[in-house]
Protein backbone atom coordinates (compact mmCIF):
# COMPACT_ATOMS: atom_id res chain seq x y z
CA UNK A 1 0.00 0.00 0.00
CA UNK A 2 1.20 3.52 -0.83
CA UNK A 3 0.47 6.54 1.31
CA UNK A 4 0.53 10.31 1.15
CA UNK A 5 1.12 12.45 4.23
CA UNK A 6 0.05 16.06 3.75
CA UNK A 7 0.79 18.77 6.31
CA UNK A 8 -1.10 22.05 6.22
CA UNK A 9 0.55 24.82 8.27
CA UNK A 10 -1.48 27.81 9.37
CA UNK A 11 -2.06 30.24 12.19
CA UNK A 12 -3.49 28.37 15.17
CA UNK A 13 -6.65 30.54 15.12
CA UNK A 14 -7.40 29.30 11.59
CA UNK A 15 -7.45 25.60 12.47
CA UNK A 16 -11.21 25.14 12.14
CA UNK A 17 -11.19 26.73 8.69
CA UNK A 18 -8.20 24.65 7.56
CA UNK A 19 -9.89 21.44 8.71
CA UNK A 20 -13.19 22.32 7.05
CA UNK A 21 -11.57 23.26 3.73
CA UNK A 22 -9.33 20.18 3.70
CA UNK A 23 -12.28 17.87 4.34
CA UNK A 24 -14.25 19.48 1.52
CA UNK A 25 -11.33 18.73 -0.82
CA UNK A 26 -11.00 15.16 0.44
CA UNK A 27 -14.70 14.48 0.02
CA UNK A 28 -14.90 15.91 -3.50
CA UNK A 29 -15.88 13.30 -6.14
CA UNK A 30 -12.74 14.02 -8.20
CA UNK A 31 -10.39 13.32 -5.29
CA UNK A 32 -8.81 9.87 -5.53
CA UNK A 33 -7.29 7.68 -2.84
CA UNK A 34 -8.72 6.75 0.54
CA UNK A 35 -8.83 9.30 3.32
CA UNK A 36 -7.48 7.48 6.38
CA UNK A 37 -6.99 10.15 9.00
CA UNK A 38 -6.51 13.79 9.89
CA UNK A 39 -5.01 15.33 13.01
CA UNK A 40 -4.09 18.66 14.57
CA UNK A 41 -0.69 19.24 16.16
CA UNK A 42 -0.45 19.23 19.94
CA UNK A 43 3.25 20.08 20.15
CA UNK A 44 6.01 21.11 17.78
CA UNK A 45 4.67 23.43 15.10
CA UNK A 46 1.26 24.55 16.33
CA UNK A 47 -1.54 25.36 13.94
CA UNK A 48 -0.78 22.37 11.71
CA UNK A 49 -3.18 19.81 10.25
CA UNK A 50 -1.90 16.47 8.99
CA UNK A 51 -3.78 14.26 6.52
CA UNK A 52 -3.05 10.61 5.71
CA UNK A 53 -4.36 8.99 2.52
CA UNK A 54 -3.88 5.52 1.08
CA UNK A 55 -3.49 4.58 -2.59
CA UNK A 56 -3.80 1.25 -4.37
CA UNK A 57 -0.80 1.75 -6.62
CA UNK A 58 1.83 4.20 -7.87
CA UNK A 59 -0.31 5.32 -10.79
CA UNK A 60 -3.16 6.42 -8.56
CA UNK A 61 -0.80 8.22 -6.19
CA UNK A 62 1.04 9.95 -9.05
CA UNK A 63 -2.21 11.03 -10.69
CA UNK A 64 -3.56 12.50 -7.46
CA UNK A 65 -0.29 14.27 -6.68
CA UNK A 66 -0.23 15.84 -10.14
CA UNK A 67 -3.85 16.90 -9.78
CA UNK A 68 -3.06 18.56 -6.45
CA UNK A 69 -0.04 20.38 -7.89
CA UNK A 70 -2.11 21.89 -10.70
CA UNK A 71 -5.23 22.44 -8.59
CA UNK A 72 -6.15 26.05 -7.79
CA UNK A 73 -6.93 25.22 -4.18
CA UNK A 74 -5.49 21.83 -3.11
CA UNK A 75 -6.79 20.76 0.30
CA UNK A 76 -8.29 24.24 0.53
CA UNK A 77 -4.80 25.57 1.25
CA UNK A 78 -5.19 28.66 -0.88
CA UNK A 79 -8.53 29.63 0.67
CA UNK A 80 -7.12 28.92 4.15
CA UNK A 81 -3.92 30.84 3.36
CA UNK A 82 -1.78 28.04 4.74
CA UNK A 83 1.39 26.26 3.69
CA UNK A 84 1.21 22.78 2.21
CA UNK A 85 3.71 19.91 2.13
CA UNK A 86 2.99 16.53 0.51
CA UNK A 87 5.13 13.44 1.15
CA UNK A 88 4.91 10.04 -0.56
CA UNK A 89 5.47 6.78 1.32
CA UNK A 90 5.24 3.01 0.93
CA UNK A 91 4.11 0.87 3.83
CA UNK A 92 6.52 -1.68 5.30
CA UNK A 93 5.85 -4.83 3.23
CA UNK A 94 5.02 -7.10 6.18
CA UNK A 95 2.38 -4.75 7.62
CA UNK A 96 -1.31 -4.88 6.62
CA UNK A 97 -2.93 -1.85 4.98
CA UNK A 98 -4.26 0.78 7.37
CA UNK A 99 -7.94 0.46 8.21
CA UNK A 100 -9.93 3.29 9.83
CA UNK A 101 -11.26 2.84 13.35
CA UNK A 102 -11.18 4.16 16.90
CA UNK A 103 -7.78 3.46 18.48
CA UNK A 104 -6.66 6.38 20.62
CA UNK A 105 -7.17 9.95 21.76
CA UNK A 106 -3.59 10.82 20.81
CA UNK A 107 -1.44 9.77 17.87
CA UNK A 108 2.33 9.87 17.93
CA UNK A 109 4.19 10.49 14.66
CA UNK A 110 7.85 9.48 14.78
CA UNK A 111 10.22 10.14 11.86
CA UNK A 112 13.71 8.66 11.64
CA UNK A 113 16.21 9.96 9.08
CA UNK A 114 18.17 6.93 7.89
CA UNK A 115 21.82 6.42 7.14
CA UNK A 116 22.65 5.38 3.57
CA UNK A 117 21.72 1.75 3.10
CA UNK A 118 19.76 1.71 6.34
CA UNK A 119 16.29 0.91 5.01
CA UNK A 120 16.60 -2.85 4.48
CA UNK A 121 18.08 -3.61 7.93
CA UNK A 122 15.47 -1.30 9.48
CA UNK A 123 12.59 -3.20 7.87
CA UNK A 124 14.16 -6.53 8.88
CA UNK A 125 14.58 -5.36 12.47
CA UNK A 126 10.97 -4.20 12.68
CA UNK A 127 9.64 -7.40 11.15
CA UNK A 128 11.48 -9.45 13.77
CA UNK A 129 10.38 -7.28 16.70
CA UNK A 130 6.75 -6.45 15.93
CA UNK A 131 5.12 -9.80 16.83
CA UNK A 132 6.03 -9.24 20.48
CA UNK A 133 5.83 -5.44 20.45
CA UNK A 134 2.32 -5.42 18.96
CA UNK A 135 1.05 -7.37 21.98
CA UNK A 136 1.73 -4.29 24.13
CA UNK A 137 -0.03 -1.67 21.96
CA UNK A 138 -1.15 -1.37 18.33
CA UNK A 139 0.88 0.20 15.54
CA UNK A 140 -1.13 2.16 13.00
CA UNK A 141 1.57 2.22 10.33
CA UNK A 142 5.25 2.29 9.53
CA UNK A 143 6.26 3.52 6.09
CA UNK A 144 9.35 4.57 4.18
CA UNK A 145 9.66 7.74 2.13
CA UNK A 146 9.59 7.64 -1.66
CA UNK A 147 10.75 11.24 -1.99
CA UNK A 148 13.12 13.55 -0.15
CA UNK A 149 15.72 12.33 2.34
CA UNK A 150 15.76 8.60 3.23
CA UNK A 151 13.50 8.26 6.27
CA UNK A 152 10.70 6.30 7.86
CA UNK A 153 7.60 7.58 9.62
CA UNK A 154 5.58 5.47 12.02
CA UNK A 155 2.29 6.26 13.71
CA UNK A 156 1.14 4.97 17.11
CA UNK A 157 -2.27 5.55 18.76
CA UNK A 158 -2.51 6.07 22.52
CA UNK A 159 -5.37 6.50 24.97
CA UNK A 160 -3.18 8.76 27.09
CA UNK A 161 0.38 10.04 27.21
CA UNK A 162 0.86 8.26 30.54
CA UNK A 163 -0.04 5.00 28.77
CA UNK A 164 2.54 5.77 26.11
CA UNK A 165 5.32 6.34 28.64
CA UNK A 166 4.44 3.23 30.67
CA UNK A 167 4.24 0.85 27.70
CA UNK A 168 7.40 2.14 26.08
CA UNK A 169 9.32 1.89 29.37
CA UNK A 170 8.10 -1.67 30.04
CA UNK A 171 8.88 -2.76 26.46
CA UNK A 172 12.41 -1.38 26.82
CA UNK A 173 12.90 -3.03 30.21
CA UNK A 174 11.72 -6.38 28.82
CA UNK A 175 14.18 -6.13 25.93
CA UNK A 176 11.64 -6.28 23.14
CA UNK A 177 11.96 -2.64 22.05
CA UNK A 178 13.51 -0.87 20.24
CA UNK A 179 13.99 -3.39 17.40
CA UNK A 180 17.43 -4.95 17.67
CA UNK A 181 19.67 -3.35 15.05
CA UNK A 182 17.14 -0.65 14.24
CA UNK A 183 18.46 2.41 16.11
CA UNK A 184 21.88 1.96 14.51
CA UNK A 185 20.35 2.78 11.12
CA UNK A 186 19.22 6.36 11.78
CA UNK A 187 21.04 9.56 12.68
CA UNK A 188 18.16 11.87 13.63
CA UNK A 189 14.65 11.41 15.00
CA UNK A 190 11.60 13.49 15.86
CA UNK A 191 8.43 12.68 17.78
CA UNK A 192 5.26 14.77 17.77
CA UNK A 193 1.81 14.27 19.26
CA UNK A 194 -1.33 14.85 17.21
CA UNK A 195 -5.04 14.80 18.08
CA UNK A 196 -7.60 13.35 15.63
CA UNK A 197 -10.09 15.77 14.14
CA UNK A 198 -13.77 15.14 14.88
CA UNK A 199 -14.42 13.47 11.50
CA UNK A 200 -11.09 11.65 11.13
CA UNK A 201 -11.53 8.04 9.94
CA UNK A 202 -8.67 7.13 12.31
CA UNK A 203 -9.37 8.38 15.83
TrEMBL record:
Provide the coiled-coil residue spans: none
**Matching Gene3D superfamilies, A to Z?**
3.30.70.100
Report the domain of life of the source organism: Bacteria
Q: Which InterPro entries match?
A: Dimeric_a/b-barrel (IPR011008), NIPSNAP (IPR012577), NipSnap_domain (IPR051557)
Q: Which residues form the NIPSNAP domain?
A: 3-74, 107-201
**Which PANTHER family does the annotation name?**
NIPSNAP-RELATED, PROTEIN NIPSNAP
The Swiss-Prot or TrEMBL record describes its family as follows: Belongs to the NipSnap family.
Q: What is this protein called?
A: NIPSNAP protein
Amino acid sequence: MLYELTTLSSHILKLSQVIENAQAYLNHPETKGRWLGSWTSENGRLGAVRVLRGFADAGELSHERTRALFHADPFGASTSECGIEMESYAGFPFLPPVEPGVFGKYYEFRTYWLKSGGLTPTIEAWEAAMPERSKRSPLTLNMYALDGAPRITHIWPWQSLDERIAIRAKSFADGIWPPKGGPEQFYEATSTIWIPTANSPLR
